[in-house]
Amino acid sequence: MTDPRLTGLLERMVAVDSRLPTEARLGAVIADEIRQAGFEPEIFEVAEGRPNVCCSARIGPGHRLVTLTGHMDTVGVAAGWTTDPFAPTTVDQRLYGLGAADMKAGLACAWRAFLRLVEVGPGRSGVGRVGFAATVDEEAFGTGARALLSTEYGRSDLMLLTEPFFGGSATEPIPLVMPGKILYRIVVHGKSSHALGNPERGINAVDDAARIVTALAGLPLGRDPVLGPMNYCTLKIDGGYREYAVVVPERCEIIVTRLLAPGETREAALGQLDTLIASLGLASRVTVEMAPPSYDPYSMARDHPGVAAFAEAYRARLGVAPSFGGLLGITDANIYQAEGGIPTIIFGPRGAGLHERDEYVDLTTLEPVVDVLVDTALRYFAATAG
Questions:
Q1: How far is C-alpha 331 from the geometric centre of its chain's CA atoms?
Q2: Mutual orientation of helices 266-278 and 205-215 as an angle, nearest 10°?
Q3: What is the pLDDT of residue 1?
Q4: Beta partners for residue 347, in sequence order
Q5: Phi, psi angle pair for 114, to nearest 5°
Q6: Residue 61 per-residue DSSP state
Q7: How far is CA 56 from CA 26, 125, 133, 286, 290, in A?
Q8: In percent, how much of the chain has pLDDT > 70?
Q9: What is the spatial distance between Cα 375 and Cα 268, in angstroms, rounded to a whole number?
Q10: Model confidence over 20-33: pLDDT tens digits?
Q11: CB–CB of 138/102 below 8 Å?
């Protein structure tokens, strides 16, 4: 049976509208939970009305810090929900609601695991400090995670990030390999002229932008043995008149997202696009820059003490080895690990419908997640003692 304190917390969290940038509403709920448990919450204002909410506890003399973390923000409400997305509804052990899986269930599990560690950790081998961090802005720019790096939690020895990856099969692996991402902002500068009388006197920025978008298929995209081939996607083309005018467009902006394989860098990806555009011989002047958000890729070794501790804890609780793999996506782990150098394990309750209608979390996976998180931290402390 799932601990009613855990499901109750999850229901309260789902009932709070924390669509970014309104995470403060959920932050207040979490801060109250921390106070009720006898701790003082640390509030780090990332931006006006957007707080990271954290706390920590020393449960032993060890020198290591393990932090359990997740994000408070959700995306918007997709069309077609069959239930109220802010009224948690349980049917057949599935709790439906916006953010139920991504990632309020994981955040609730992280908090319960923190409390369990405070309770059972003292006296265990190598135990040091444990932290809990609820962050903002993961679904957009990652400002919450980046701000966390500048606090004591940025000096964690291990992060346990409770995104909804349960690791039960090859189709839902625990991701040890993550791509990076660059967001290209391409601005095409042409020349205006009358579009009927003498368009040849102008330089059509929209036409040249179209040539660039077509040529993107020639980018030398990377490949990783775990992740496979990388990809790109044109997200936006913006050029031409705002109010109808018969004028050759003199400016067009293109936004393109591109995944980077481990070993690829943002700087090299910028250079590759510059080279490709230069080869087109366009009449327009073209500028290329990185727009936020961009992230670096990373790969975590399976023999890392944190991964080994997690694998042992997973097998002990669930009776099988976890499935490890990669993920063509981005999480706060790209910030914690690739930018902050903090080994990060992604593991959380199973769910479905992320960023879609009728999102839900499988309630039967909540308690196993808490158990594995607690055991992982204890095994990691023991393995790295001294």
A1: 2
A2: 120
A3: 63
A4: none
A5: -60, -50
A6: S
A7: 19, 19, 9, 50, 36
A8: 100
A9: 41
A10: 999 999 999 999 99
A11: no
| CA 283/CA 278 separation, integer angstroms | 11
Q: Strand ranges (DSSP E) for 205-311?
A: 223-224, 228-229, 232-239, 251-260, 285-290, 298-299
CA–CA separation, 74 and 92 (whole Å): 24
Nearest partner of 20 among 69, 72, 96, judged by Cα? 72
For 325, the 3-state DSSP assignment is: strand
- Say if residues 335 and 295 touch (Cβ distance below 8 Å): yes
Nearest-angstrom CA–CA distance, 252 and 231: 23
Which segments of the chain belong to CATH 3.40.630.10? 4-177+297-383
- As its CATH architecture, domain 4-177+297-383 has 3-Layer(aba) Sandwich (3.40)
Q: Which two tokens stand for residue 84?
A: 């109220």
pLDDT at 386: 72
Range 251-265 average pLDDT: 97
Q: Which CATH number fits domain 183-290: 3.30.1490.100, 3.30.70.360, 3.40.50.280, 3.40.50.300?
A: 3.30.70.360
**Residue 3 confidence (pLDDT) above 90:** no
Nearest to 350 by CA among 119, 128, 156, 172: 172
Main-chain phi, psi angles of 37, to 5 degrees: -85, 0
Mean pLDDT of the chain: 96
pLDDT tens by residue, 213-255: 999 999 999 999 999 999 999 999 999 999 999 999 999 999 9
Q: What is the DSSP string of 65-116?
A: EEEEEEE--B--PPTT-SS-TTS-EEETTEEESTTIIIIIHHHHHHHHHHHH
pTM: 0.92
Q: What is the distance between the alpha carbons of residues 212 and 277, in angstroms, rounded to a whole number? A: 7
- Furthest C-alpha separation in the chain: 85
Helix or strand or coil: residue 106?
A: helix
pLDDT band for 41, please (50, 70, 90 cuts): very high
Q: Quote the pLDDT of residue 2.
A: 74
Q: In DSSP terms, which residues pair with 344 in a beta bridge?
A: 159
How does pLDDT run across 181-216, given as a tens digit for each residue?
999 999 999 999 999 988 999 999 999 999 999 999
Q: How far apart are CA 200 and CA 247, in angstroms?
A: 11
Cα separation, 136 vs 61, whole angstroms:
31
